[in-house]
Amino acid sequence: MEPHKRTIAVVIPAFNEEKTIRGVVEDVCSSLHGQGMDAHIIVVNDGSSDGTAVAVRWLPCTLLNFPFNLGIGAAVQLGFRYARKLGCDAAVQVDGDGQHPAREIGRLLEPILNDSADVVIGSRFLLKGGSRSTLGRRIGIRYFNALVGLLIGRRITDSTSGFRALNCRALEICAEEYPDQYPEPEAIISFTKQNLRIAEVSVLMSDRQGGQSSINTFAGFVYMIKVSLAMLVAVLRTHQER
Amino acid sequence: MDSIVPLRIQIVSIIGSIIFLIVIGRLILKGKLREEYAIVWIFATAALLLLSIWRNGLEVLAAALGVFYAPSLLFMVALFAITTFLVHLSVVATKLQKQNKILAQELALLRNEMQKTG
Q: Chain B: residue nearest A82 by CA?
């Protein structure tokens, strides 16, 4: 093994994604191979009631099962904890619903590998094209972008994107503490508070290929209020309270 | 001084408080209520029982605190106590949720470990 070769983990949270999870894991596998990268693929089954666990059983990945549904944040955090246990020094988060293109993982990891960023966010909105989500969702995303911008004093074009890469420092922080539900915008605040360098990379996303979004229209409003509050708290919170 | 509390309601409230105390006691004995939480209820019931027996108590207290309408003192104290206790319960629920998450994560890791070795 080359001395500077990194150990990379790909964390895939999955809640009732039996239709898509297999394809996602296979995609990730083949595109990592294609890019000459070696990675541990970690699927975290967040208490799915369908065949998600069975679907990935024979694939070359580690499956971690929650006994019940805990929320995507807890699932992602478990993936990060496991990655840290494996000694990985970079991690990529990819959703289990097939929205995030595996072929872009290499580009997402680039700023991490050449140490120009601690956290890289795959953004749908840096360039035109690809799936840009529904109108209601775009309004929500705009709102969170504005709030994140206001709170951290810099523009993030896709603060709700769950397609992210972390280096070992960011991995350490997320494994230690990560919000439970709808964690993406809130995590950006804590990254900034811990002085991590955040970069955005333009990616093309597809529409979800199956399953249900964790956010429906009716819960959308409640979600926005809840996450906004959590973000404000994250700004006010001091680190030593942990 | 005439009491503001009529005898009939006094008897009813004494009986009510005693029944409440018995229910709390039974819940503790059956292990359905932690002593930690029961203490609050026992104190609250004791206070109610005291006020039921000591008929002029509420008026005396209200006069001492400068409250014009004595029953409003009771409402205020009760509302304050209930609100405080609810906040306390929310804190407890938050703590439990956190511990629950850690437990589930540890369980998932352990199961994975077991599958690898077994």
A: B109
